[in-house]
Specification:
Elements: E1 5-11, E2 19-24, H1 30-43, E3 49-53, E4 62-69, E5 73-80, E6 83-91, H2 96-115, E7 130-135, H3 143-165
Parallel strand pairs: 1-7
Antiparallel strand pairs: 1-2, 3-4, 4-5, 5-6, 6-7
Helix pairs in contact: 1-3
Amino acid sequence: MSEKLFRMHMIIPGSEVIQAQDFELSPTNPQAEDVCELFHRFLVDKPAEFRLRLPFLKRDEIEMEWAAAPGGTALCTFYEDDSPLASAVLLSGLDPNSDSQMAALYEAAILDPIFGEESKKVLEFEGYPSIAVAMLGAAPERARTMQLFYAALASVFFRQMKQLRGVN
């Protein structure tokens, strides 16, 4: 995988197919840049763990729960009316030990109980940075929105991690 890309795997309840897609770390599409900028401004000066409403959404009341760990990993769940829409684990590849610990936590807390044994494939990446997304309570028509949110969030997070570690 190119150093300018990250990989997203997404699993949807009732589907045994894991959707895989590569995204640019630094989007060249102006609309994608705009969404990344919204998440960047939202995340600035936030603590390592929080749960807050996304203030830049006009029609939806979506909250984001975020937990970043040392080593360049994070967990993120989006909620609507206190019901989880989707959950993800972000693995930067900067610290393999941190990546494996966070992936194991995500597997035990989200994947195994909801999706079962086959879901482990969502965490099988050829390279890093990567993000695994599990759709939870989001309606099928919201999958694209969740994918957009996670792609923008991952772009911001992975670029920040590379910058902090001095990796270009």
